[in-house]
Amino acid sequence: MQYADVILPVPLHATFTYAIPEGMHVVEGVRVLVPFGRGKKYVGLVDRVHDQQPQGYAVKPIDSVMDEAPIVTGSQLAQWHWISDYYLSPIGDVYKAALPGGLKAEDGYKPKTETYIRLTEQYRNVTALHVALNVLARAKNQLNVFTEYLALSGWDQVEEPAEAKPQPTELQPAEVTREELMNVSGCSSATLKQLEQRQMLETYEVEVGRLNHGGPYRPELIKPLSTAQSEAYNQILLSMMKKPVTLLHGVTSSGKTEIYIHLIQRALDRKEQVLFLMPEIALTVQMMQRLQRVFGDRLGIYHSRYSDAERVEIWQKQLSENPYDVILGARSAVFLPFQRLGLVIVDEEHETSYKQQDPAPRYHARSVAIMMAAQMGNGTKVLLGTATPSLESYHNAMTGKYGLVELKERYQGIELPEIQIVDIADLQHRKMMHGPFSPLLLTRMREALERGKQVILFQNRRGFAPVVECRQCGWVPTCQHCDVSLTYHRQLNQLTCHYCGYTYKIPTECPCCGSTNLRSRGYGTEKIEEQVHEFFPEARIARMDLDTTRTRNAYERIISDFSAGRTNILIGTQMISKGLDFDKVSVVGIINADSMLNYPDFRAFEHAFMMMAQVSGRAGRKGKRGLVILQTKQKEVSVIGQVVRNDYTSLYKELIAERQAFHYPPYYHLTYVFLRHRQEQIVHTAAIEMGSRLRQWFGGRVLGPDKPAVAKVKSQNIRKLVLKLENGIDMKKVREYLLLAQTQMLADKRYSSLQVYYDVDPL
């Protein structure tokens, strides 16, 4: 008797064993329909086939097998287990995150079809066609549609044979879609239906792919590298001979993308596949155009804004005999199947967007990509590229774990932008600020627009105002489900919680004191946009934040309009800091640097440097040197000077010393343990008890419990414990103890509805 260990889409740290009925062919990586619980059935994935009969319970049989061949490879299963173990996430949650929805559902994926029109069998000869035309002589609409079909299909070119020749029985016309015929003839569906009822025309379905066609493969369009780029390219190849991972530290606009393209072409010449990861969907628009121009149909795109059916088709194509050679995608692309992966490029490797937050698994795509390359077992190499490396990656390069290649000059020798600091505290004291704008910023914006140049304004808060406040008593509206203040969205005329998404009507009076004197406080991107319109009424302005980019094509439209000069000023959140390439941007305004500096997190200065350096790099990428106006009340803070000088080395030395002194990454591993419950007293008691259990094993490495910055989300009260674990500690044992403590806690009836989850290597 054979058995199969099956992964089910349930949040449990286990696989489930089922009996394989005699005659049923089951292999690892196929989907199976299995019973689970009382009367429920799930689509699971076979993880392992063996002959070890489980003891202590009756084994249920598999109902049916859904695939003729595996839809998940052995290397993918190894990746899933690594993610589950390392990130303390149930394997079922990994399964749900990895597979497109259409491959998890019982009814499965439905291929896209298109309706075509053809002659019925009895009318597929010339003589019968003449009869049909005579019959339709008095039905003008039907006659028009019928003759249009004959013209589109080519039947009207067929001549009636002479009497001496045998009459043709069947010919092969061109295929005609129902939509094409209706468009050309201008007919209604009712007219087509009448021709079907006369049994002259009939419809049939043809399966069509959803995937985009990128055009021909044109390697001759690859640009030659500059001297500096060529040197970096050769250093990367040399590094890859020695190290599995190489960090490319290149300043903004140094031409890293051209180096990537040459490396991709080298991989294709070696018959290898390439995975190209980017942190944001917005970035894939420009990068897709650049890569598609060269690699055409050999390039596939994969990210969450694609429909589920499209993602299923890409998945299936990657399993086929003709897979994409290059995949460009956001973090979820690490889950795709690859048959001969040779190179992984992680562009903008520092970006926090690579870390999945909710739901589980809370994985970091950069770490998963590095592990995936190692698990391939064929020498797959990883290139991390950025102008502002994460401290962990740079430390790995400095200590020899990664190779390091540096590209210190911009393409064609263009200077890095000039950064001018504006002390807005002084200007506010002298009442010289115009809302959030300094006189210098407004002047430089006006000069840029007069020269036909473009402007980018960076404000890392969306909405109209972060807070609404009663001027009489100081009351601030908060979310009834979350422990946060509500953001005012003027365009939608509502207050919104940015944690649970719940919306509220704007109050007309204060519920505490009855005052009607309510005001908005602070500036979000929507309010910045409104005020820019007041200062520059003639300018064409666009805003790029989560509110304006909810649809799939919104990114493409905003970026395309700005690239083509159809808009003059682009206002945005951190989305606009992520590697976008615009030719005519001469001025960048950082509206308020302090919101990044004052964040209560040990990575605040690191992230602030990254965002300011990256958004500054959007200025002056072509032609004249760009200008950045950096507005702050804290000009004496060291990170401000480091941004001005583009001095990453100084930042690294300062922060790495702090990390070592206070036991933070990269010298220590962090794991956050979160507990959630609807009742605050229960989660408070549970957190204290969980902390006591963990201290039995980890001692002083356990900190807390404490309330996190946001201690209530979606009516769930939250407590947090922190584990600081020194490098070299047995992480397998750590995970065993954590899961044991969790199991012991949940066995207590008081905590039956308690949620316990983990964030490993949090950002």
Strand order of the largest sheet: 11-12-10-13-14-9-15
Specify the structural class: alpha/beta
Radius of gyration: 31 Å
User: Main beta sheet, described?
Assistant: 7 strands, parallel
Total helix count? 22
Low-confidence stretches: 164-170
The 3D shape can be described as globular
What percent of the residues sit in helical stretches (DSSP H or I)? 25-40%
Instruction: Average the pLDDT over all residues and give the rounded result.
Output: 90
What is the beta-strand fraction?
A: 15-25%
* Total number of beta strands: 31
N- and C-termini, Cα separation = 48 Å
What keywords describe this structure?
33% helix, six-stranded parallel sheet, globular, alpha/beta
Report on this model:
This protein has 763 residues and is an alpha/beta fold. It is built from 22 helices and 31 strands. The protein has a 7-stranded parallel β-sheet, sandwiched between helices. A hairpin with a 6-residue loop joins strand 20 and strand 21. The two termini are 48 Å apart. Mean pLDDT is 90; it is low at 164-170.
